[in-house]
Amino acid sequence: MHSLNLEQSIISSVLTDDLEKAAFLLKENPHELPLLAKLMDSVHGKALPLSHLKANDPDFVIFFPSYTCGVGCQMCCTGFSSKTRLFENYSHMSPEQFDSYMPWIQNSSYVIFCGLGETLESPHMLNFLGKIQDKISIIYTSGVPLTREKTRDLIKAELKILTFSFDGNTTLGHGSGNPDYIKKFWEKVDWVEHLKKEMNSIFPKVSLNITVSQDNQDELSDLISTAQQHGIQEITIDPMTSFDHRNFKKTVFADFENSKNKINAVLDRWNSEGVDVTQTGFTKSFNDASSCPYLDNWLSLIGTSPTTVKAGVCNGLLEVPKSIEGFDSKENWNSFPIRYLRYLHFCSPKENKPMQCQHCILTNLKNYADLSLARNSGEISKGDDPLTIYRLASNMKTEKNWSGARQEFLKSLKNHHDFSLKGRAYFHLGEIELNQKDYPEARKYFELAVQYHFEHDLAFAYLYFLVMIDPPSQIPARREKFDASKLVSALYAKYLAMNS
Ligand code: SF4
Ligand code: SF4
To answer: Is 294 in contact with 484 (CB distance < 8 Å)?
Structure first.
């Protein structure tokens, strides 16, 4: 269970519609969040905000079981190029942590074990697999810790899909282009097929994940061809991210149109030849997706200590506000921030989506490329440093110099691409307006605060009541979510038909 401080407990109660508890805590602690308490007093008898935007449980539950890795890929976006563990005193998700998410697992169809580290370094994988034999289980691995014995164990444990990560000859990727690593890698792919035959099993289906950069984009077609020769028919492609400014030039985003054209030609060719090649945003080309394939489908669970797990509702960088991020209870799935996210994705123009979504590497590659170029161009803050202005504005606000603070916060929004800083500035502008009791203006700023900094707890709590006070007069029809489940199950059914 997550331990929340008093402020987070109040906010969490508001965001999960437990207004009775929020009222109790605010009454017991009259100096805590006075602006929120005042707003709460004005909503008696009003309908809960966006309560029609609830959704069924997600079909995909994603665990990150291991926080260690010794493979040392240079392009590792978690930073394992220069370290072997993520947390000092926490290496692997425990069976107890996994079990506490069983209610989510029970209602899902797919359970995925992915890496913020090497999944097979977790000593608990067989324990986890033993509990989900009725699910389509998927493990991502570099393959490095895989031995024949471990492969046999995975087959016995009825793992359904094994996805290897490998990127060819590039020095940035798995194995740094070392010929011995590459030889061993393909031998391991072959072992899995041989051991499946030996054990009379059609599982696990083997697929490949490739991280593409300007370093290996010209080799991509040969790599897919080699994979096909080793029996692989399904491949996902991830664009490499620039975890470090020095490597930005090697990403496809430094010369996006050129790279996109090269990669799409390869994807077109192999898809027309019957290999299923998609980018991780589920499209069969490096083009923008019309809707997010993860929202309402995906629940990802990352352990951050022996007692805390952080949830995400997609496969992108959007962070869930801290007071609800534990997803200890089912209420969090339909809490106000997630309803509001659905509202932005399914009922609003695309310009209203969170900035992380508008620039998402999975769904909006062009915007992501433009933003990466701008952030890496060195032309960022012209004039005064926005953070210094933001700090000056914060001091003025503490001193109740409302007009001075307003002016400086507005100034801090200019000439930079730091969404989090902008979101926090909008939040303070909202609080200034709330102090002046200008509710429409406050609401406008809190909407911008969460658009730029989605994880802002208190902005969401204020917005909750402001939407209650003045609900949307007409809610546009809700667009359908992307049917990711149907796509994955069709591929799975195809595999079963070909192998049974
Ligand atoms: S194997 Fe995965 S987690 Fe390990 S360094 Fe490589 S990319 Fe990072
Ligand atoms: S960041 Fe937004 S668009 Fe990207 S996967 Fe997450 S919810 Fe979808």
So the answer is: yes
